[in-house]
Amino acid sequence: LWSLGYSARLLKTNRCRTAASNTSFPAVWMLLAQYSGRIPGPFVVVKKNRSFTMPETAEDKSDVELYSPHPEVRGMKVLDREAFKRTVVVPVLKVKKEIVNTMVKSLKHTVLQRPGLKRVVEDPEDEDSRLVILDPHKIPEFSLGEPEQEALKKLNVLPEVSKYNLELTYENFKSEEILRAVLPEGQDVTSGFSRVGHIAHFNLRDHQLPYRHLIGQVIIDKNPGITCVVNKTSIIDSTYRNFQMEVLAGESNLVTKVKENNIVYELDFSKVYWNPRLSTEHSRIVELLKPGDVLFDVFAGIGPFAIPAAKKKCRVFANDLNPESYNWLLHNCKLNKVDSKIKVFNMDGRDFLLGPVREELSKELPLLQGEQKTSYHIVMNLPALAIEFLDVFKHLLVGEPCGAVGLPTVHCYGFSKHDDPAKDIQERAEAALGTSLAGRCSTYLVRNVAPNKEMLCISFQIPADVLYKRPCP
Fold first, then answer.
1. Alpha-carbon distance 345 to 352, whole Å?
2. Which residues fall within 8 angstroms of residue 327, CB to CB, at 6 or more apart?
3. What is the domain range of residue 419?
4. pLDDT at 438 over 60
5. Which residue in 109, 131, 111, 112 sits closest to 120, CA to CA?
């Protein structure tokens, strides 16, 4: 927004100059486009005042590429930090050191705002003065606009813009800028990464793989606290929900600690499933629970549904087939002091539903009274397969229905590549249950997993005619 306002002022200024210099309006418009970042271009120096640095050379083209490392790093596969050095020419103002702060505030939109770079440097010719670096993208032709000149006039500062050779190093560039300069031109820089404690987790694409170790080291350099970078090398195994990974840089310690919704979990990232992008979904489901409710977590992992539910004073039955997840679930229950409130199982999900879940429901549902406030929730977070488990609920219990209030609510997750993912998930759930859920379910879009692939949650109370098998007369 500020750039638009500045461009408007610049246009007004340049119209005056245009009348005097006979410059065509299209030329002014091209200049404006250049300043807005739409058309890259070098500075054109119209007036040389003085220089406080080394004499100009043939390479002194007033380069404004403050955000690009030296072009010779293109194709680098082994990180050489020294190769990123480059010198760029930037505009500066000479100011008495006692009014530097006032001047910087007056020209706060014109002074260089680049993180990691000093905007005030020593004046090699005058110890009583300082050089204030201006943003080269906002100073046309090394010449100040009328608003800036007026601000300097009030401070009795000469509006004379000079050149300064600014040296940039590896430390001055952001990770995205470094990788954009190194990787093949025109290709995606990175596919993003997830942070799991001290671990950065990548899903690199094929064209990025030759540069994977350099990418890993750059991420460690530029992200305090990250000491290990890994790349997924296989798809998630549907049985245990873990995957093969390669350590790209840093230490090989994959046992880490994470904090989600104010709860701490410890895990071995190489052996269990953990996705930090599901934090909001974990919180959403737990918020549906009330103290005293019962939660059956069929694919519990290390406990992101089970443990916060137990802390909310719910009774929890948590299960996971992966022995490693089971052990870390036990560990995290003790870590969060809820081990007495959670019954933990290491079973196949179908066996868990047919065993402990059926046993508990058979025992408790007949005891519910008309105004019973206890709700029963069954979470099935295994998106690749969970819908295939819904057929377990057909005639899971025997007897007369306890009433609509006591019917368990299922929260089942699934992936869909359909044009209408909500309709797709509902139809697949209906096929597994053998009944219609029209008007009896809700679908929630959890996240976009990949292009044209969504993760959804379908929630419904199990219909009584599905859940109960009535005894023969």
1. 8
2. none
3. 274-366+373-469
4. yes
5. 131
Nearest in space to 137 (alpha carbons), one of 66, 35, 54, 69 = 35
Q: What is the mean pLDDT of the chain?
A: 84
Bridging pattern class, strands 294-297 and 315-319: parallel
- On whether the CB atoms of residues 303 and 333 are closer than 8 A, the answer is yes
Q: What share of the chain in percent tops pLDDT 70?
A: 82
Maximum distance among all Cα pairs of the chain, rounded to whole angstroms: 106
Domain boundary among 115, 150, 168: 168
My answer on whether 197 and 314 are in the same domain is: no
3-state secondary structure of 291: coil
Express each pLDDT in 367-398 by its tens digit. 776 666 789 999 999 999 999 999 999 999 99
Kindly tell me the burial class for residue 467, based on how many C-beta atoms sit within 10 Å of its own C-beta (0-12, 13-18, 19 or more): buried
Q: Token pair of 469, please?
A: 């098998």
| Nearest-angstrom CA–CA distance, 374 and 365 | 10
CA 112 – CA 308 distance, rounded (Å): 47
- Total structural domains within the chain: 3
Closest CA to 170 of 76, 65, 80: 80
Residue 231 pLDDT: 93
Among 111, 144, 168, the domain-final residue is 168
Give dist(CA 11, CA 29) in Å, integer.
8
pLDDT at residue 18 above 50? no
CATH number for 124: 3.30.70
Tokens of 359: 């046993």
